[in-house]
Amino acid sequence: xxxxxxxxxxxxxxxxxxxxxxxxxxxxxxxxxxxxxxxxxxxxxxxxxxxxxxxxxxxxxxxxxxxxxxxxxxxxxxxxxxxxxxxxxxxxxxxxxxxxxxxxxxxxxxxxxxxxxxxxxxxxxxxxxxxxxxxxxxxxxxxxxxxxxxxxxxxxxxxxxxxxxxxxxxxxxxxxxxxxxxxxxxxxxxxxxxxxxxxxxxxxxxxxxxxxxxxxxxxxxxxxxxxxxxxxxxxxxxxxxxxxxxxxxxxx
Length: 252
Prior knowledge:
Shape: globular
């Protein structure tokens, strides 16, 4: 029998599309392969949870797992953090937001570790009452180019880690180099979290729960570090730390 903890991974979502050549008019839930591969390499067994549109079903799914990973992907909808006037160019995915906030509530009730990746960091901040910049380039003066469509995962920058924080102890250094593919970011930090890493422009790049719960998130994609050509650090240590936190909890 496997000793790997079973961990839930939130699904990415394609809305029903009458023009799509496959699964016309059907909603699709899917996973990005590098993420689930990295979780497995870290020592856990990933399972992608579908959105069953029912909180009781969500709780039942999460109750079988020893941890939750909130995946990257589509923008968080401004409406999910109470912003009703926004640029329609970036509407986000309110349906996915609702589904993932339900996952967070179920994981919190079960008291299992939660790790957010990129969008996952933003979703956690919103789930706990924080807000976001809808678009860093147009809403934050002096922002770096946090997403370059041409270079994509090979776009990198330095990140400064807060001394004595979870992330600084994990990397055992104060500064690391990470990939960056996001155009949204934390604006008002939820009172439940403390910021533990920042980009050179001050954008929050990692958070951890203030009260000791294992709820942590990074703005970069640790699963992509092997794809970068500019010498980023071994970012997958984040997944190993998460998997270690899940060991000993409920497994199936």
